[in-house]
Amino acid sequence: MRSLFKPDEPLVHIAVIESKQQVVTYTNADEVELILDGKSLGRQSNAKANPRQRNRILWEGVALDGGRLEAIAYNGNQPVARHRMEAAGRAVRLRVTPEDTEWEADGTDLMHLRVEAVDSKGRRVAVADDMLRFSVEGDARLVAVSNGDINSHEPDVASHRHLWNGSALVILRSGRSPSKVILKTASDAYKPVTTVLQTSRKAAVGSF
Fold first, then answer.
1. N or C: less crowded end of the chain, CB within 10 Å?
2. Nearest 5°: phi and psi at 133?
């Protein structure tokens, strides 16, 4: 962590734990002021004398429904570093993004597709954990699903997966015949998404 290993370079960084309405600011400065939508939430001191807490400041009860956060680090009363971020709002839809537009119809080529829950501005919503269901049409098959959660007990070879940190991964394997392939992603929480791909030498891809 830079705040520990680069003590001579003033810095501050915001990390958000949206599910608990908590914000953590990492800094090597003396104090941090947190500002939400232009309103100061006060200053907190960096507990540099405590090896278990130094350079890490916790802020409780920060309501981040699409708000703009700014952290200002101070040494004395002199601002020395800033970090700004815009928190996501409520998840309103799913976004499915293929890794590539090229997909060979050779029976082995894999296509990875990222599924994300996003807000009205297209920002990924990290607290979204809804169940997703997948189905495939065309000469391809679904070979695996994942979401990056190392503590998950859900099967990797399945046609369903929960979002984790607002995202999940679908892996398809092509067949041997050039084909239009349709991935349908459904959830009780969002409008279904249909993603159209093509297995060919020069593949085209689109979503609607």
1. C
2. -125, 135
Decide if 176 contacts 108 (C-beta within 8 A): no
* Side chain identity, residue 120: S
Question: Are 172 and 201 in contact, with CB atoms under 8 Å apart?
Answer: no
Give the burial class of 30: count Cβ atoms within 10 A of its Cβ; 0-12 exposed, 13-18 middle, 19 or more buried: middle
User: Are 181 and 197 in contact, with CB atoms under 8 Å apart?
Assistant: yes
- Predicted confidence (pLDDT) per residue in 138-190, tens digit: 999 999 999 999 999 999 999 999 999 999 999 999 999 999 999 999 999 99
List the beta bridge partners of residue 172.
111, 142
pLDDT of residue 88 exceeding 70? yes
Query: Could you tell me what percentage of the chain is helix, strand and coil, using 3-state DSSP and rounding each to the nearest 5?
Result: 5, 50, 45
